[in-house]
TrEMBL record:
Belongs to the cation diffusion facilitator (CDF) transporter (TC 2.A.4) family. Residues 15-208 form the Cation efflux protein transmembrane domain. It comes from Corynebacterium singulare. The chain crosses the membrane at residues 47-64, 84-103, 115-137, 158-177. Pfam families: Cation_efflux, ZT_dimer. This is Cation diffusion facilitator family transporter. InterPro entries: Cation_efflux, Cation_efflux_CTD, Cation_efflux_CTD_sf, Cation_efflux_TM, Cation_efflux_TMD_sf, CDF_Transporter. It is found in: Membrane. The keyword Membrane applies. Residues 213-290 form the Cation efflux protein cytoplasmic domain. It comes from the Bacteria. It is a multi-pass membrane protein.
């Protein structure tokens, strides 16, 4: 389980994300209001999704930190994946609004006003999203938080969206081609749809008891091979489950038939300690079998 200090760090990052979303919404709404650009409006709507996602993510991180109870005996870690699902759904809603607005503006083009001020405001918002997005992704990887990583990646996607809008609005200001504004908004909407699809796909995969990442599997496999030689045992079944920031490891350990229960238990404790050094806080479940027993399944990590 995560330490309380780590939980506070994650919550602070999510509060930073919420504050960033509020600030960028204000900047982009002002930009849309002063220019009348549907491109800026679509960008502001995506930042609105960022705000909802950040609030949901903050709640999910608090729920995920709760200890195991009678109804959730393996903890609440998967609450973080639920937040990513909500974020994905919100992205689809925002994309639909953007596409609808863009189509209407494409049919009735309108001239832009004060594009320079709008471009400046949007640029400031983009730089803010870039800095916080990079910070959240790095912190998410460090603390193994699906919520932080998803929120950070969404902010970075928003940056690329804003860059496209900035280039497009600048082109409208230079060329006077009013149709470029709604076309840019349509492109933004389609890009957001793709982002939502990827988020939903990743979240659903995680909710279906996805195993640990390949690199962590490789680390665990190397450790278990060393422990087999050191303790004269064999791990005939090796399974893992990622549950938010928590790791679950399930092992079947074959031991010499003449070993006593006490000695087998002592070796199992040493195995658990070794895995805990590799993956601090991981929950390890070891089933002991006498060597030579035919098991119903033999599972190895890829």
């Amino acid at each position: 389980m995560s330490l309380p200090s780590e939980q506070l760090v994650l919550e602070r990052f999510m509060k930073l994300s919420i504050a960033t979303a509020v600030a960028t919404i204000v900047l982009k709404v002002i930009a849309a209001a002063v220019t009348g650009s549907v491109g800026f409006l679509s960008d502001a709507l995506e930042s609105g999704v960022n705000l909802v996602a950040a609030v949901v993510g903050f709640v999910a991180i608090k729920i995920a930190s709760k200890p195991a109870d009678a109804n959730h005996q393996f903890g609440h870690g998967k609450a973080e994946y639920v937040s990513a699902l909500v974020e994905g759904a919100m992205i689809f809603v925002a994309a639909a609004m953007i596409i609808y607005t863009a189509i209407r503006r494409l049919m009735e083009p309108q001239p832009l006003e004060q594009p320079g001020l709008g471009l400046l405001l949007s640029l400031v918002a983009s730089l803010l999203n870039l800095g916080v997005g990079l910070l959240l992704v790095r912190a998410g990887k460090q603390h193994r938080s699906a919520t932080l990583q998803a929120d950070g990646k969404h902010l970075l996607t928003d940056v690329w969206t804003s860059v496209g809008v900035l280039v497009g609005i600048a082109a409208v200001a230079v060329t006077g081609w009013l149709w470029l504004d709604p076309v840019i908004a349509l492109a933004v909407g389609l890009n957001i749809l793709w982002t939502g699809y990827k988020l939903l796909k990743e979240s659903l995969s995680s909710l279906l008891s996805e195993s640990l990442p390949k690199e962590e599997h490789a680390q665990l496999d190397t450790l278990l091979n060393e422990l087999e030689e050191r303790h004269d045992v064999e791990f005939t079944s090796r399974r893992t489950v990622a549950s938010g920031r928590n790791r679950l490891v399930y092992l079947t350990m074959d031991v010499p038939g003449q070993w006593t229960v006490l000695h087998s238990h002592t070796i199992a404790d040493r195995i658990e300690d070794a895995i805990d050094e590799l993956f601090p806080g991981a929950e390890v479940f070891i089933h002991v079998e006498p060597a030579g027993t035919v098991h119903r399944r033999i599972l190895r990590m890829p």
